Each structure stands twice: as C-alpha cells, then as structure tokens.
Amino acid sequence: MTDPLLQVENLTIKQGENIIVNHITFPIYKNEIFCLVGESGSGKSITSRAIMGLLNKNRFKVEGNILLNKAKPIELTKQTKREWQKIRGEEIALIYQNPTLALHPLLKIGTQMVDTLRSRRMLSKKKALEEVHKQLSLMNFSDPIKIANSFPSQLSGGMNQRVMICMSLLLQPALLIADEPTTGLDTINQKKIIKILVELKETYKMSILFITHDLRIVSQIADRVAVMKDGEFVEVEPLSVILERPHHPYTEELWKQASTFFRKEGFHVSRTP
Ligand SMILES: Nc1ncnc2c1ncn2[C@@H]1O[C@H](COP(=O)(O)OP(=O)(O)OP(=O)(O)O)[C@@H](O)[C@H]1O
Ligand SMILES: [Mg+2]
User: Fold this and answer.
1) For ligand 1, is residue 43 a contact (CB within 6 Å)?
2) pLDDT surpasses 90 at 158
C-alpha cells in the first residue's frame, strides 16, 4: 500500500462529559478497503459522521485531526460549511445507514441525480440523464429509465438503498464511506452490490471505509480491519492477521462467532488453530 489518503489522529468525540469516541488513530490508504467492525453502539457511525463533518457542533465536541491527503492536503476538522460543499460528494461520499436521510422525498430519482451531476460537471441535461441511466443499470436495475422517473416513495427500501449507493458514487469520490450499505438488501443484491463496489474501487482507484456487522463480507473484501469497542479501536490489522492471529480477546470472540456462522452457511474461513 502507498500513501494514506486519510489520516485520522487522536480523534475524540464527546457529548458533554460523555466520551463517545476515545483517541482513535488510523490511516486509510489509497485504493484500499478498510473495514470497521464492532458491536452496536461502539461508535462506528459517529466516527464516519465526524469524518464527513456532519456532527452538530452544538451537541458534539470533536478533537484531534482528520487529514485528507490530496494534491493540497485538507484538514477536515477545520473546513467551513462552504468548503464542505466542495468536499462532499467529490472527495468523500457517504452511503448512509438509512437511505431516507439521503434522498429528497419530493424529487424524482433521476432529477436528484442529474442535479448532483450537473452541479459539478459541465454536462447537458441529456448527457447527464444518459449517464444517470448508465450508472443505475450498474446497480442491477433492469429498467433504469423507470427508476429515474420514480419518486423514492414508489420504490422499496432496498431499491432506495441501491439508488443511494449509485448517487454516492456519481462523482467518483476519492473516499467512499459505506455505513452498512447492504443491510436492507436481499442476498442476491447484496452480493452484486459488494462486487460492484469492489470493481468500482479498482476502476476509479477509490478508497472505501466499509462499516458492517457482517463478517462474511469483511473476510471477502477487506484489506485491513479495525475492531471498535466502546469508542476505542482494540485492533487494526491486515485481514490476514485478524483471521490468523487476532490479538484482542474481543476480536477472537468476533471471529469465533463468525466462523460458527460460516460453517453453518458452508463457508470456509482459513484460520490456524
Ligand atoms: N445523535 C446522537 N445523539 C446522542 N448520542 C448519540 C448520537 N448518535 C450516536 N450517539 C451515541 O454514540 C454511541 C455510538 O453510536 P453509533 O451510532 O456510532 O454506534 P454504531 O457503532 O454505529 O452502532 P450500530 O452498529 O448499531 O450502527 C452510542 O452510545 C450512541 O448512543
Ligand atoms: Mg451505525
């Protein structure tokens, strides 16, 4: 792996006296998939929201540094609202855990996507719409024109989730944060979307911060894995190390549970005794 695209240093998130995330430090390298796992409430989503600059300053205190290494490095904790408008979508995009947060309920899918594209790219409406149809078909929609003509309320939760994934990839961000992106999808779409994400990562040389509970996915796509517990990173290792030699009892426990599950499902997880 080469240079870090993102360098998080001593990130601490507090709400009043309550420390939600406690001094976490990690890089995300260019063109890697960095998986973040951990039990519910351990601080995964809030970490991703801090990276995206989405935490309400009146409610949360964010300390530490988050550096995005572009031609000109950007310290994300110090960006103004206006500067964030340029960064979101283009440099970093977030696939939310909940698609309803990302889609406008009163605008057709195609309109939302065309607007997003045209706000940053010099494209005619026609060309933008063509691109939208192309991108939607990549997300395993058999009739992308119909999807583009629909309002979010006319689609199922899983369809909206695929739309949102598509929307977050439209501007080919350098870093994609995917917070449990496949939770609402059936197994077939889950597999297809994961495959597409991995392919797009290679095509566009993106980095992905992938948050999930699903250790099967982790074992298939991760380059490195961070295990979070009670707001702290208890382990950050390449996938092979996590699989073969988990250092922390919590990681050991996670893999034990996962391998029981894998065996039941007929998966094989390589692991020395
Ligand atoms: N908007 C909020 N206001 C107050 N506390 C919050 C808020 N969002 C998260 N928290 C607290 O921060 C902690 C971490 O929550 P977070 O949503 O990051 O967990 P998570 O690891 O993403 O869990 P899950 O796997 O269930 O999605 C929790 O204790 C939660 O109560
Ligand atoms: Mg979460």
Assistant:
1) yes
2) no
